[in-house]
Amino acid sequence: MNIFLTLAYLFFIGSILGWGLELLWRNLTLGKEKWINPGFCTGPYLPIYGFGLCVLYLLASLEQYQWIENPFWNKAALFLAMAVGMTLIEYLAGLFCLKFLKVRLWDYSNLWGNVQGIICPAFSAAWAVLGALYYFLIHPHILNGLDWLSRNLAFSFFIGVFFGVFAVDVGHSIHLTTKLKTFAEEHRVVLSLEELKAQIRAAHLKNRKKYHFFTPFPSQYPLSAHLKGILDELEQRRKGSGR
User: Fold this and answer.
1) Total Cβ atoms within 10 A of residue 122
2) Of the candidates 143, 124, 184, which has an alpha carbon nearest to the alpha carbon of residue 57?
3) Which residues, including other chains, have CB under 8 Å from residue 44's CB and lie 6 or more apart?
4) Full-prediction pTM beyond 0.70?
5) Are the CB atoms for 156 and 25 separated by under 8 Å?
6) Residues 6+ apart with CB under 8 A from 149
7) Which residue in 25, 36, 131, 238 could disulfide with 82, CB within 3.0 to 4.6 Å?
8) Which residues contact 220 (CB under 8 A, 6 or more apart)?
9) Which residues pair with 103 in a beta bridge?
10) Of 3, 25, 20, 34, nearest in space to 204 by CA
11) Closest-CA residue to 105 (of 41, 230, 192, 201)
């Protein structure tokens, strides 16, 4: 099968499944009272997981070359490479959002060994475990899925629709983050997108208004009002820490 179509298929699957995984992790494991749509896109997909699945697939495909003769160490090196690859994707994506867009999508600042709050050893280890789970439980099924796709190319139409909707969504999200970037640069702060969504949700609940899970923007208040609320919270934290 054409490698471009293969990676497009994997990006589609990874983005959607990754969104579901992130949703459960953030809202159940982290003890959130209400569900918040993760990521900066409106739809149920996270591009970082789409790229991650493509990387895992490409790395798993390299095993056939047997870089290390011992099968055990060959697999160990493969899982290590998967962890490094996923950590690198996470770091580059987080650094881009943090330095260029002035927006923080996740924060590991309270975890040991973190680098700029973007990556940390604990999550790198988690990526290694997920890489192993992918290799043993998912990769064989993906290969079967790709074989099915090669015999049912009409399904590529749905992938095309996905990328069409995805492109529009990304354009809309970039327009929003441009506003956030302008505000953040004016006030010399870095905004947490999750905190902003939580602030909007709290405002809706306080005024007994319906909160839209997929479209928290716009709300009944101007975006600047919610951003001011975030600044007030940051100021209170600084005072609380004695800085």
Assistant:
1) 12
2) 143
3) 16, 19, 20, 214
4) yes
5) no
6) 1, 5, 9, 155, 156
7) 131
8) 203, 204, 207, 209
9) 191
10) 34
11) 192
What's the burial of 134, exposed, middle or buried (CB within 10 Å: 0-12/13-18/19+)? Answer: buried
Residue-wise pLDDT tens digits, 17-69: 999 988 888 777 766 556 788 888 889 999 999 999 999 999 998 887 777 78
Distance CA 135, CA 2 (A): 22
CA dist 206 and 187 (Å) reads 27
Token pair 């975890």 is at which residue? 111
Average pLDDT over residues 177-184: 88
Dig out the tokens for 78 from the structure.
């493969």
Burial annotation 180-189 (CB, 10 A radius, 16+ → b, else e): bbebbeeeee
Q: How confident is the model over 81-103, as pLDDT tens digits?
A: 999 999 999 999 999 999 999 99
Structure tokens at 114: 């973190």
| CA nearest neighbour of 145 among 2, 4, 6, 3 | 6
Q: Are 103 and 177 a contacting pair, CB within 8 Å? A: yes
Backbone angles phi, psi at 189, to 5 degrees: -135, 165
Structure tokens at 9: 């298929």
Q: Please state, in angstroms and rounded to a whole number, the distance separating the CA atoms of residues 230 and 224.
A: 10
Residues in the chain, total? 243
Which among 167, 169, 131, 168 is positioned nearest to 8, based on CA atoms?
167
Cα 107 to chain center, whole Å?
12
